[in-house]
Amino acid sequence: MSDERLNVGPLLVRLLGRGVVLVDGALACSYADERACELLGAPHLQGLRTEWHRLRTLLHVHELADIRDEASIQHRVDIVTAAGTRSLRIELHPLPSGGCVVLIRDVHVLDAADRLLLLASETCASRPALSGLVHQAKGPLNNFHLTLALLATSLARSSGAATDPAFAKWQRYLDVLQSEYQRLTECINEIGAQAHPSDPQRSDLDMNEIVSDVARLLRHEVTLRDAAIEAEVSRTPSPVHGDASALRLALIGFVLCVLDRTHENGRVRMQVDCDDSRVRVRVTGVPAVPAEDVTRTLFELSPARRSPQAVAGRLIVELHNGQVSTTTIVPDAWGFVICIPVATRAHSAH
């Protein structure tokens, strides 16, 4: 195998997020990364090459001659190592010049690429699941509303006892229940709107409102993680032109990314400011991980080293002609800066 292909090995490892073995046209092992050596029970590349004659049979490398172009071989195999038996998922992808790329992962360990796939599946499944829950909730909610109406009618008919303290107490109870019914209805309607999003539509928006809404939606999640969230909005409108639901999704992703890397009892802060050309939103966490991890979450190509939420948020911002950068404000505070062009029409209207 040529030196050029050997030099590609480390790049494949980073891009694919898997243990990688490169096999040459003679079916010999030409390259293997540390993860592949570990999964196959070898201490290093030379040790793997020593055991390769045995391992290549277990990995079904000998089947390469039987498959067609652009096909692949996929197997689950059990490899006995000094650390015990490992169940591995194996993919063999032939190379045009002979040999193949062998991708290896432990079936019992989810890496970043697997989690990204699960996240996408979860997102696709959320719509029918949320729709079903909303449908189920509407029945009891309607019965609740009917019961409250009957109770209100009964109390109204007892108006002669309005001076009775017990009557006043029941009236207060009814007022509280009616207020809570209204709040519950609004929550269910909001869930239903998220389950059936409309087609993307761009309009003039105030980023202050979107930031405040994100803080409201995530306050419960942040509290569960023993943290706090703050939203510092501009005193004047911060107008942008875009899709409100997409921008909300982007900000939620950035906040979750910061929250995942913010220590216990930390604080996530969203700040909005605006000048004549752009609206700037800062999403930062205190205290947080070392600064070098910040850029990696946003710009690394390797799925094993980046954050799906941050990357998805960056894509959304770029679709709005904006850009995302990372920042370290003080030694223990880091996060993202989102810049989106000002909506000139909305700005002039305000």
Topology:
Blueprint: H1 3-16, E1 19-23, E2 29-32, H2 34-39, H3 45-58, E3 73-81, E4 84-94, E5 100-106, H4 112-157, H5 165-195, E6 202-206, H6 207-224, E7 228-232, E8 239-243, H7 244-260, E9 262-274, E10 278-288, H8 292-299, H9 308-319, E11 323-330, E12 333-341, H10 344-349
Parallel strand pairs: 7-9
Antiparallel strand pairs: 1-2, 1-5, 3-4, 4-5, 6-8, 9-10, 10-12, 11-12
Helix pairs in contact: 4-5, 6-7, 7-9
Q: Can you walk through the features of this model?
A:
- The chain has 350 residues and is of the alpha+beta class.
- It folds into three domains: 3-109, Beta-Lactamase (2-Layer Sandwich); 113-195; 202-349, Heat Shock Protein 90 (2-Layer Sandwich), CATH 3.30.565.
- Helices cover 49% and strands 26% of the residues.
- The protein has ten helices and twelve strands.
- It has helices spanning 3-16, 34-39, 45-58, 112-157, 165-195, 207-224, 244-260, 292-299, 308-319, 344-349, and strands spanning 19-23, 29-32, 73-81, 84-94, 100-106, 202-206, 228-232, 239-243, 262-274, 278-288, 323-330, 333-341.
- A five-stranded antiparallel β-sheet has the order 2-1-5-4-3, with helices on both faces. A five-stranded mixed β-sheet has the order 7-9-10-12-11.
- A hairpin with a 5-residue loop joins strand 4 (84-94) and strand 5 (100-106).
- Helix 4 runs antiparallel to helix 5, helix 6 (207-224) runs parallel beside helix 7 (244-260) and helix 7 (244-260) runs antiparallel to helix 9.
- The longest helix is centred in the middle third of the chain and has 46 residues, at 112-157.
- The protein is elongated.
- The chain starts with a helix and ends with a helix.
